[in-house]
Each structure stands twice: as structure tokens, then as C-alpha cells.
Write a sequence for this structure.
């Protein structure tokens, strides 16, 4: 069951060229958050991905192209023309845990801030599995560019809390935790950041006074 009872989870399925991507983009345009299963599968089977070695072990080096990546055309011809091979592949479907992605967020934020001013970066997570020293170094680069980070943690995992607080301090942003599964608390925090990003501390103060927003107060205590 979804931890976000006020939200819908919509799955789009269908044959090739039936308009799944178009419908997904339409929903995203209306504010939905989209996950492209094809793109995730490509990442998993890319060189260094969690499925890369398993695919080669099952089908052989023949499926590897000259660039070292899985040749999807070869894999498709082999798997889908051989029912037994396809059955073996499907029998190996499993959940693979992935590392957190804060490093990618920091790199992307730095790159974008060099193109145009970025008023705030928001990161929502519950844990951290990456090297904290490296993350703090990259956060320092954002600080030099005047980009504050707002880090909202679901729950109280200690290592993540330490990392999130330090990154918020380095970038002169803010850290807050919210209760696991509390969509309302997260929504209020995101709304407060949006106000700050468009109008700064003064706008956030006015917003907090007008709405009695506890989230605004929590952010202002760290931003002032």
C-alpha cells in the first residue's frame, strides 16, 4: 500500500509504439512524477550496472558489443527467439538495491548553477550510502556559487542526519526531518522552500506570518 494515501500510482503498459511515453509526458506536464522503466532497465544493464555481469553469464560474451556495452539487438534476437532462454532470463528477475544518488544531484546542481542562477536545491532522502567527505567537498563548491541546499530527511537514520546537517551548514541552507510517511509535513517544507527560492528570507517571513507555517519557522531559524 502506498505511504502517500492522497496520491495515485498509475502504471502505463502496452505494446511497442502505442503511445505510452506520450501519455507519461502528458501526466508529467500536469505535475505527476514519472518513472521510465525502459530507462531504468537500460541503466541496470549498462556496463557496471547490477544486471550487466548476470546477462553476460547467462547469454555469453557474444551479446557484448565493440563498445563494451550489451548489444540490445543481439540480446533481443537471442532471448525472444528462444523461449527457454527467455524463461531463464525471467526466472532471474530480482530486486537490486542501489546506492543513494546525492553525488549526482550535487554535480548536476553545480553544472546548472554555472548556466543560470539557482536559488535553492532540495534533496529528500532517508539514508546516505556515499562517501560523506566527498559529498561535503562538492557541497562546498555549491556554497562558493551561492547555492543553498535544503535537505529533508524521512526518519532519523544517524549517519544521514549528520551528513545532511553538515551539507546544509556548508551551503547555508537548512536541514529538517519529517516523520516517515508524512506527506503533509514534506508538502509544507517544500512549499516553504518554494517561497524562499522566489523571494528570499523576507518572503518566507511574510509567508510564515500569514499561514502560521511551522515549516517556515524551522527554515528561518537556520537561514537567519
Amino acid at each position: 500500500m502506498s505511504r502517500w494515501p492522497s496520491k495515485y500510482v498509475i502504471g502505463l503498459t502496452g505494446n511497442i509504439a502505442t503511445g505510452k511515453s506520450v501519455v507519461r509526458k502528458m501526466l508529467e506536464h500536469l505535475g505527476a512524477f514519472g518513472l521510465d522503466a525502459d530507462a531504468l532497465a537500460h541503466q541496470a544493464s549498462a556496463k557496471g550496472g547490477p544486471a550487466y555481469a548476470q546477462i553476460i553469464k547467462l547469454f555469453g560474451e557474444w551479446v557484448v558489443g565493440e563498445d563494451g556495452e550489451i548489444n540490445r539487438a543481439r540480446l533481443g534476437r537471442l532471448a525472444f527467439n528462444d523461449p527457454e532462454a527467455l524463461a531463464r532470463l525471467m526466472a532471474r528477475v530480482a530486486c537490486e538495491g542501489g546506492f543513494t544518488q546525492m553525488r549526482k544531484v550535487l554535480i548536476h546542481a553545480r553544472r546548472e548553477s554555472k548556466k543560470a542562477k539557482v536559488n535553492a536545491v532540495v534533496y529528500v532522502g532517508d539514508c546516505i550510502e556515499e562517501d560523506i567527505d566527498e559529498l561535503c567537498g562538492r557541497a562546498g563548491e555549491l556554497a562558493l556559487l551561492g547555492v543553498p541546499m535544503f535537505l529533508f530527511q524521512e526518519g532519523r537514520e544517524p549517519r544521514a542526519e549528520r551528513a545532511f546537517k553538515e551539507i546544509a551548514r556548508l551551503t547555508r541552507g537548512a536541514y529538517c526531518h519529517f516523520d516517515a510517511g508524512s506527506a503533509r509535513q514534506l508538502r509544507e517544507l517544500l512549499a516553504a522552500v518554494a517561497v524562499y527560492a522566489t523571494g528570499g528570507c523576507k518572503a518566507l517571513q511574510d509567508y510564515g506570518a500569514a499561514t502560521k507555517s511551522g515549516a517556515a519557522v524551522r527554515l528561518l531559524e537556520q537561514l537567519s
